Known about the structure:
Blueprint: H1 3-13, H2 15-22, H3 24-29, H4 35-38, H5 61-85, H6 93-98, H7 105-122, H8 134-144, H9 147-160, E1 165-172, E2 175-182, E3 197-203, H10 210-213, H11 217-224, H12 230-241
Bound molecules: manganese (III) ion.
Amino acid sequence: MDKRTFLKNSAILGLGGALAGTFPGTLKASGMISKEQSGGELYKLPELGFAYDALEPHIDAMTMEIHHSKHHAGYTRKFNAAVKGAGLEEKSIKELFQNVSNQSPGIRNNGGGFYNHKLFWKGLSPRGGGEPAGELLKALEKNFGSYESFRETFSAAAATRFGSGWAWLVKTDGGLAVTSTPHQDNPLMDVSEIQGYPLLALDVWEHAYYLKYQNRRGDYISAFWNVVNWESVAERFNKSTK
Ligand code: MN3
């Protein structure tokens, strides 16, 4: 077929569909997922939006691939099963979290695992790093004194979270706050010490860093700042202030 016919057919099929059939390897490498994996489920494993090796050397490709295609896929699958099993399909994930103390461990752990990783990926970018700007920077300076001081507070929360859990930057009624949660809990849950709208998440489970950093969680936290997607964090912040 000539180029024009190809382009026309691609437009009809939708370019994504045409490429998916042609280059499955490319899509796998870029962290996209097959139809079989997402199925017709209520909650779908999101795409990363970048290749598994795109965050090298800060976060290694194998960690990213296992983290996304095994860990996150597992939470997603089990969350769907738990929601279905409890007949909670009509509840929004926000409603489930607001009342999570009354839900089963399956909903709490897998719902958290599904949501937290989704937010974690959004906060990462191969073009990330640098410093926040605009209203977000002003708010960080207002709440923490300076960007550097915010970074120290967040890093300390991530470093001192005992065992498995997460560090968070959260928009609360009173402004911005840093907190950490155990297991797969998050600040949208009624069990969280500080509750609010999560802007930035850092996974400090060992599966997030052990292959590359082993026991050096501090090195992983330092490396994280090189890949933070400040544009995405600012977008969430602006949305939360409207
Ligand atoms: Mn994880």
